[in-house]
């Protein structure tokens, strides 16, 4: 059995055996995603070789992430000569849920930990003595998985351009003290404070148009297109249009948080040809998402079944949410990968 698949299986069994049944409280629902038929695989396109020559396009969105169009590449540290390739790699999964320690993409299991009201978005620091803590806005939790799907499924054997890690859970928001505290979250991204004003937020309308008609604007890094503001990097969403919109907003936020923390590295451009590199302010053009849960986003609309960060959810939200059993969402994240595919090594 592939090590990545084995890791997925063992982790899931541990959760199931260590968790009480969720049938009694009905607070956590989910199912294991179909990682073959339930994934929008056309999101991996276009695949380009020799610089900008499209091997497979399928009319999918892309952008010019490299400055050079040379058909030959060279990695000095690895002493490797090869050809430039680019594609969109399914490498991460995210689930956005109402319930702390609920894992919709692991079958809907829930760990009972005796959480308090702050785990559900209540802000006790602003409540007078004897008052009742109230949630200040829409609040959701986020779980983040490492799942390099092409490597897990052996889509491309022995390809050094693929991330070769096993399945793992990298983050759970209930144990993150910044997820429910805007001041703590601001320490991680202090450069975000100037962009909370009306003028900066008004500029997000242009990002919404760009993301809906193509690819979002990287210079408007504080905007998540039509879905809201990226900052603060917490679980609160001041505008809640629907779970699909909130889910995509929090997917963008968790990626921005990991970039700011230096734990999520960039994979595009000339720097990404030979290795990953740190990128504190993420280039949001490098990510596309497709829904895995509740309703897999496999039906193509205008020739596509995945979306760049910030795109309007008017079309993708249709049928994506149902009462009780389908109020959480899960996504597969595709990231742009530029790589020097080695032909000759020294």
Q: How many angstroms separate the termini?
A: 33 Å
Write down how many β-strands occur, each being a DSSP E stretch of 2 or more residues: 15
Q: Low-confidence stretches at least 5 residues in length (pLDDT < 50)?
A: 13-26
Radius of gyration from CA coordinates: 20 Å
Describe this structure in words.
The chain is of the alpha+beta class. It has one domain. 17% of the residues lie in helices and 22% in strands. Strands 1, 2, 3, 4, 8, 9, 13, 14 and 15 form a 9-stranded antiparallel beta sheet that branches. The chain has a two-stranded antiparallel sheet with strand order 5-6. Strands 7-10 form a two-stranded antiparallel ribbon. The chain is globular. Mean pLDDT is 86; it is low at 13-26.
Task: List its traits.
346 residues; alpha+beta; nine-stranded antiparallel β-sheet; 15 strands; globular
Please specify the SSE layout and strand pairing.
Elements: H1 3-17, E1 47-49, E2 53-56, E3 73-75, E4 80-97, E5 102-103, E6 109-110, E7 138-139, E8 141-146, H2 149-152, E9 168-172, H3 182-188, H4 198-202, H5 204-213, E10 236-237, H6 243-261, E11 265-266, E12 277-278, E13 287-293, E14 307-308, E15 329-345
Antiparallel strand pairs: 1-2, 1-4, 3-4, 4-8, 4-15, 5-6, 7-10, 8-9, 11-12, 13-14, 13-15
Concise overview:
The chain has 346 residues and is α+β, with helices and mostly antiparallel strands.
């Amino acid at each position: 059995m592939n090590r990545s698949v084995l890791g997925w299986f063992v982790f899931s069994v541990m959760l199931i055996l260590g968790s009480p049944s969720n049938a009694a409280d009905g607070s956590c629902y989910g199912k294991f995603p179909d990682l073959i038929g339930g994934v929008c695989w056309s999101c991996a396109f276009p695949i380009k070789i020799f610089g900008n020559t499209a091997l497979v396009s399928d009319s999918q969105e892309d952008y010019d992430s490299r400055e050079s169009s040379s058909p030959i590449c060279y990695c000095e540290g690895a002493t490797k000569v090869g050809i430039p390739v680019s594609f969109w790699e399914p490498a991460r999964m995210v689930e956005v849920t109402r319930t702390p320690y609920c894992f919709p993409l692991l079958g809907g299991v829930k760990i009972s930990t005796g959480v308090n009201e702050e785990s559900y978005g209540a802000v006790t620091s602003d409540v007078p003595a004897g008052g009742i803590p109230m949630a200040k806005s829409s609040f959701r939790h986020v779980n983040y998985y490492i799942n390099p799907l092409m490597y897990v499924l052996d889509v491309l054997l022995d390809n050094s351009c693929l991330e070769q890690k096993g399945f793992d859970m990298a983050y759970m928001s209930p144990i993150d003290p910044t997820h429910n505290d805007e001041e703590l979250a601001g320490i991680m991204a202090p450069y975000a404070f100037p962009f909370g004003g009306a003028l900066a937020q008004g500029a997000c309308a242009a990002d919404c148009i760009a993301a809906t008609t193509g690819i979002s604007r990287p210079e408007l890094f504080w905007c998540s297109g039509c879905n809201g503001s990226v900052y603060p990097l917490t679980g609160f969403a001041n505008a809640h249009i629907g779970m699909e919109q909130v889910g995509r907003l929090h997917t963008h936020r968790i990626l921005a948080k990991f970039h700011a923390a230096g734990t999520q590295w960039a994979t595009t451009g000339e720097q990404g040809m030979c290795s990953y590199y740190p990128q504190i302010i993420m280039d949001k053009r490098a990510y596309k998402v497709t829904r895995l849960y509740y309703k897999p986003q496999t039906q193509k609309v205008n020739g596509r079944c995945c979306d760049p960060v910030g795109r309007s959810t008017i079309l993708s939200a249709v049928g994506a949410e149902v009462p009780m059993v389908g109020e959480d969402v899960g996504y597969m994240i595709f990231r742009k990968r530029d790589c020097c595919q080695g032909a000759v090594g020294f």
